Amino acid sequence: LIILYNCSLSESMTIKSILGSELNSIQLNMIIWNNGPTLLEENDIVNHLEASQKKGISSFIYQDIRNTSLSKIYNYFIQKLNYDFFVIFDQDSNVQFSFFQNIYQYTNFAIICPAIYPKQKNDKQCFPSDFEQRELVILKGEFNLGTTRTINSGTAISKNLIEILLDKHNYVFDEKFAFYHTDHRLFDLIHETSETALLKGLCIGEMYHDMTCELPLENLSQHARLEIAFAKMLMRMYRTQNPKQQIIRNLFYAYKMKKKDQLNFNSFLTLLKCVITKEHPRSKVTIDNNIKPTHSYVVN
User: Fold this and answer.
1) pLDDT in tens, 62-117
2) What CATH topology corresponds to 2-212?
3) pLDDT (tens digit, 9 = 90+) per residue, 105-164?
């Protein structure tokens, strides 16, 4: 599943690198969700489907330009599709040639993920990392799911892990979160679930990824600052025993974030709304249960 935003199919580093990867013995279904703000151009779609056909990849393009919450998109396809491993990608990840072979060869692991290097500091691995100490990175090899976290992009989640989470919680991604920290909340859920915390993951290979969090504050747009503020506030709220009792403290914390993160007045008001509703504003946007791809190519 690849999420595009303000990006064409031909411009996506993720799509380009997947089309160049080794897929011997692998049946790959590529779901592309265009999250807006405009529809994809027809010639871009035609070129992509031709490239998918040559590579032997089934490709399905969905277009909903409302900038829908990522957690809702993830959950929708997790529960709709048939698969052995479900892999999430942002549009700007550089996928190694052997990425899918690494999954194919190690199917006994609950999660398989590459070592993540931010494009902003490509000599510094940042994920996977220790669950509590983010600066303590996990080296390549096996790890316990309950003591580790990583980002969504490039993470292959096994059907077995997904089925356990759905059985215990009825969801995989927390839909109160929309964009940032949907991955942190996933690993919170894994950590808190005894049946999944002891499962094994594998870090293998490398992936370079655009990490907004590595940019200094002055380089972030007001929109990016607000999205990060939403994520920090929601993490604060849902890592307490009873968030309803914390509303006064959270309002005060929002005021401190306004100053520290240099939020303008409108952003501050929107953050206050998040404190009161206890969810991201985009969480109210729903996906049509009968949505169909606008374009597709299916390998026979």
Assistant:
1) 999 999 999 999 999 999 999 999 999 999 999 999 999 999 999 999 999 999 99
2) Spore Coat Polysaccharide Biosynthesis Protein SpsA; Chain A (3.90.550)
3) 999 999 999 999 987 666 789 999 999 898 899 999 999 999 999 999 999 999 999 999
pLDDT at residue 122, as a whole number:
63
Q: For residue range 241-283, what is the model confidence (pLDDT) as tens digits? A: 666 567 888 999 999 999 999 999 999 999 999 999 999 999 9
Paired strand residues for 87: 156
Domain boundaries, the chain: 2-212, 217-280
